């Protein structure tokens, strides 16, 4: 399935400065694996040393949080958008 | 401890509006969604602003203008020149003044009918409950993870809604946390990123209007909560991309296992948030400076004057080089691994950045790569400007 992965601003520097990446995947996990194999530096920002998705990075399929779907096993369909949303703290600055 | 300013009006039972106030709030009063009832709700509302910077500026201005009867502001900073690009509460003549003083003056001038309480302190686990308890709603305009989690937990423990906004460069997020039945910040992000994975100043910066937009969204949601009108931004995370001029909305769910608002909560009082976020600033800096060989700006200057052969390596970004430079060889920190062959390990290398943090990483990297004669310029180009050449602009 062709899906689009949206890269948030803070992580774009590790993804060739791209805003989004189009790739082929059947599940969210497959899409993220394909993404991190293309952009090695992204891996430590998305996954802990134990290989778990980091708790300050949320992943959505369309507008739904994968933690409330089937996590990384969540299936994706043609045309779905996967969005990575890390926590950002700025404001008072 | 909180420094309370003089009350301009005592709170209590809903007082009817004065003739002056009717005129002032006329554009609210003539719309049925606000009307006299709504305006009295605003007048009797108490909102706490945590931070009076980029997000706090529009929040303070619009909530004061709208007639929110009591505004509390927590801040401890002074106004500096770099604030003026986005913190529209302050003017050039305010530079150097306490933000609280300048903000109070500005807001009181905008609306003398409201009461403004200022708290010149950092919000901490010791004072947060005491300060927040006084208010109906908290608007979070802070800029760091420890305070974000502190505000969240304190609001959940006290049952107060927390109108959240956050910005990064040209992207923003907004939501309402801690609303009855709704999710909290920890439901969204159970833990903060470790300090090493937070973007450094090289990736910082913010388009000046962005906090204006996100702060205005927070102000609007605050007014809606007070008026109890419309659909509040609860259970939804609003994402805003200013460059694409696009808003998106993601679903936010209450996490049943949330440590602070879930059924089996483990956090029942405020904790040490610096520790929780892995931040112990001073200690960390001490470790860095003891392991990295450093050169002060004055030493560098005298060695250059002596005619020593020093190679100056600038590890900032090209757009920073354009602001000011020491005519060093530019290799941004991120490019260093792949461009390391441009460097001659037989020469003495002095690496610098803006403040000395990125160049410390560069020196560390070069030492690991086998370079033995490398120094970090202590305090970066900022210290160079302070100690050697004041004509170099600081940014």
3D structure, described in words:
The complex is a heterodimer of chains A (93) and B (395). Chain A contains three helices and five strands, in the order βαβααβββ. Chain A is of the alpha+beta class and 93 residues long. Chain A has one domain: Beta-grasp domain (Ubiquitin-like (UB roll)), CATH 3.10.20.30. In chain A, strand 3 and strand 4 form a beta hairpin. The longest helix of chain A has 11 residues. With 395 residues, chain B is α/β, with parallel strands linked by helices. Chain B has two domains: 261 residues, NAD(P)-binding Rossmann-like Domain (Rossmann fold), CATH 3.40.50.720; 105 residues, Oxidized Rhodanese, domain 1 (3-Layer(aba) Sandwich). Chain B contains 16 helices and 13 strands. In chain B, strand 5 and strand 6 form a beta hairpin. About 2% of the residues of chain B have low confidence.
